[in-house]
Design goal:
By secondary structure, the protein is of the alpha/beta class. It is built from 16 helices and 14 strands.
């Protein structure tokens, strides 16, 4: 059986949760299941002048292509140009590769930077596409479901909220040109009459706003939402790594819950030693493992630790980029920066602290680091949003605190400092995450089913 994995990036050129997960899955399938694995990946370096480059790594056949630059994600305004999700140039390269490889199964790990329309092309080739949803890209051009002010977004609302997000609340008084906008939008995409009326009423209610030429047409946001909604609904298999993400997509994209397979990622086993062999005493060692990304809430955590005496607690930070930042910010003495780490270093990481803190300000859809901590029986303190409400039972196997609330985070940390014995209690109640082998077997079974239904 030939399997084609489609992803926006692939190691060693790109590394991240999706990239590493796709690589390990491909490697395991090739080795343990004796399958022929092919990868169609974006992220080809600009130093290559050709459109694509073929290579083989660990028995995996990889075609890297020049994909859509993801630099637009760093801009204040989300890019909703059609080429970011329906790219005819990438479509042609994908069709050529499909004709060359002739896979039995195509699994879309992510289409960001490529083209969501590749899912339709797979259907046209009489294949049954498998799509794993990993984040909110199909719902949110900015991926994070955060407004420009940092508030959580409740969802696209047919694209209207995306348009408001784009305008950043700076629209000035002027009557909207609804008629022109409506004619353009409804002539391009099929929208139910009830939704047409809803959108009409919402836009007509925006009389105090200017949606003229300066702030663009709302059409691209509606078009993006409906195209990606129809695209996901057309997939024969949809996989979600968390119940939270499954529920969110089911509601916001009107996908029957039974059509979305809940398959949490498996965790590759690793050995680790507890930092403290006996009972934990002060100072308690708290950990943070991740980048200095503002969405991860790291700076909130650092500010909170300024209030905590070094004799009571230490904060051990792992992740790329922290050394330079620690010099610039002149961290307090109770913050220890360890630097970048890889999957081979998990033993060192999780033996360096007693309890992990994940202070994310945006929705986390799975959280590899939380599941890795659970694998080492390390409890987690996390924001009370996203997947953490699924995997953490407050006061039983960890603690939840109010998102982006320094006082709430401080209280959770102080609760552990005042009673370090809670760590052992929480640790005993941790349920071990799914094993890597079981995860691979579950996907392999879906691949076999998809291959059979194709014929």
């Amino acid at each position: 059986m030939k399997i084609l994995e489609v992803t926006h990036g692939f190691p060693p050129l790109q590394r991240g949760g999706t990239e590493n997960n796709t690589y390990l899955l491909s490697k395991t399938l090739a080795k343990n299941k004796n399958l022929k694995i092919y990868v169609f990946s974006g992220g080809l370096s600009s130093k290559y002048y050709q459109d694509f480059k073929d290579e083989t790594i660990d028995g995996i056949n990889i075609r890297r292509i020049h994909s859509v630059s993801l630099s637009f994600l760093k801009q204040d305004f989300p890019n909703v140009d059609i080429f970011t999700y329906k790219n005819t140039h990438i479509e042609k390269m994908f069709m050529d590769y499909l004709d060359n490889v002739k896979p039995d199964v195509v699994h879309f790990q992510h289409t960001i930077g490529l083209s969501a329309s590749l899912i339709h092309i797979t259907l046209e080739k009489n294949l049954r596409p498998i799509v794993t949803i990993r984040d909110f890209w199909y719902l949110c051009p900015r991926i994070k479901l955060l407004t420009p002010t940092g508030d959580l977004c409740r969802g696209p609302e047919y694209g209207l909220n995306c348009f408001f997000c784009y305008s950043k609340g700076t629209l000035k008084t002027k009557k909207p040109t609804y008629s022109k906008l409506a004619r353009q939008m409804f002539s391009i995409i099929k929208v139910p009459v009830s939704i047409k009326n809803y959108i009409k009423n919402r836009i007509m209610a925006m009389e105090r706003y200017n949606i003229g030429d300066k702030y663009g047409n709302a059409l691209p946001f509606f078009a993006r939402y409906y195209y990606l909604k129809e695209t996901l609904q057309s997939a024969k298999y949809i996989i979600s790594p968390s119940l939270f993400l499954k529920s969110f997509y089911s509601e916001k994209m009107n996908i029957e819950p039974s059509r979305i397979n809940f398959i949490p990622h498996g965790i590759v086993p690793f050995k680790t030693k507890r930092r403290s062999k006996g009972s934990i005493k002060r100072p308690v060692y708290f950990g943070y493992a991740g980048s200095p990304n503002k969405y991860k809430g790291a700076y909130l955590l650092i500010d909170v630790f300024k209030q905590i005496p070094p004799a009571d607690a230490k904060l051990v930070i792992w992740g790329r980029g922290w050394e330079k930042i620690s010099e610039q910010m002149k961290f307090s003495k109770n913050i220890i920066v360890k630097g970048e780490y890889s999957s081979q270093d998990l033993n060192k990481v999780f033996s360096s602290f007693d309890i992990l803190i994940i202070p994310s300000t945006c929705y986390e859809t799975f959280s590899f680091v939380a599941h890795e901590a659970f694998s080492a029986r390390i409890p987690v303190i996390a924001s009370n949003i996203g997947v953490f409400n699924d995997i953490i039972q407050d006061g039983k196997n960890g603690l939840l605190f109010e998102r982006n609330d320094a006082n709430s985070l401080y209280n959770s940390i102080n609760k552990i400092i005042e009673n370090p014995g809670l760590i052992a209690k929480f640790s005993k109640n941790i349920r071990k995450p799914k094993s890597w082998d079981k995860y691979v077997d579950e996907l392999y079974n879906i691949y076999k089913e998809a291959s059979r239904t194709m014929k």
